[in-house]
Amino acid sequence: MKVGILTLGCKVNMYESEYIINELKKAGYTICNFNDFCDVYIINTCSVTNTSDIKSRKMIRNAIKRNPNSCIVAMGCFIEANKDYEIDGLDIVIGNKDKSKIVSILDNYFKKKEKMKLLYQEDYTKFEDMYITDFPGRTRAFVKIQDGCENFCSYCIIPYVRGKCRSKDKDKVINEITDLVNNGYKEIVLTGIHTGNYGIDIDTSFSELLKNIVKIKGLKRLRISSIEITEINNEVISVIKDNNIIVDHMHIPLQAGSDEILKLMNRKYDLDYFFKKISDIRRVRPNISITTDVIVGFPGEDEKLFKKTIDTCKKLEFAKIHVFPFSLRKGTKAEELPNHIENSIKKKRSRELLEVSKELEIKYFNKFINKEVEVLIEEYKDGYSYGHTSNFLHVKVFKKLKHNEFYTVKITDIDYPYCIGEIIK
Hints:
alpha/beta; Rossmann fold; Transcription Regulator spoIIAA; five-stranded mixed β-barrel; 23% strand
């Protein structure tokens, strides 16, 4: 039986979908392209913005239209945020629990041919275990270590659709990473909904987990997908200082560059705290690449406060800014705030901040002209080999190089968004 799977949204979804693919393969299903004519379509949805909701609905409709006789499965955050969502042709609805049971769920459906809706009212308090030993076609492997969020930022729906913070057993994390490394993966990415909050529910901490992971034999790089500034405590900074296996790159969401908007967002820090923490990180890792997320057009953000955000981003010298126009989510505190911003203004500010991001990226790239860096090769196309450095420079070399191998490269030029490199050895 042929199955097409589409993954929308974050790295957590990507990890979960990979687990589902592995389980379906073991059960005898054939995994196909989502655009193929399949017997089963699975859409792992996202609901982080209104655009995500729109795309989730569109992909469900597309699958139904492609083969009306197929079994259509919709799962994930869009479903949790829209529990009453129904459409003719949708057969199985799964929230953010029981994704790991996809094989038995499909078996049950094909036996009874009855529509299924697996949603729960209670908070999720137990981590849903998944275990992956292979990521076909990928150079770096993701490991989901945590789920849920309890920050309740005023703009965000995620705590309502992912539930309370819960962590994967430490030994299971270590065993999973060990298996992936033994299967040839040199770089591991730790991911979760609130990654740095790992351990809060199982009497351990993120720093303790890091200390154990860096000891795994054969692991060359450890990357953290994203971490809140409030989770980078002295213990985490100490581990980063003492272990070069942890890469020279951190993604730390800022979200707004003014205290006024940070307070309205219910973020758990002010600018003074953020600047001091960034300074602490750069004290132990002077060349680190720090990337960020920023929301523009939040309710109450006038032109003066937007300009302050631009000024803040420049002072912090981010290596890249991921820019998001504010997206109203029903049921969040931000829905009730006054002074909402027109879409045309949000779009204008997004373009302006993206230009700032480009300037900062190029400025960061230029620091490495004539410097030697180590690149892990990920793909070859059109005569160039492409890969990333520890600090996430995207490097291309005009030569065919071995996939999943490290090369020492000298950066000779910038061809935005790439750095041009020459092989040293």
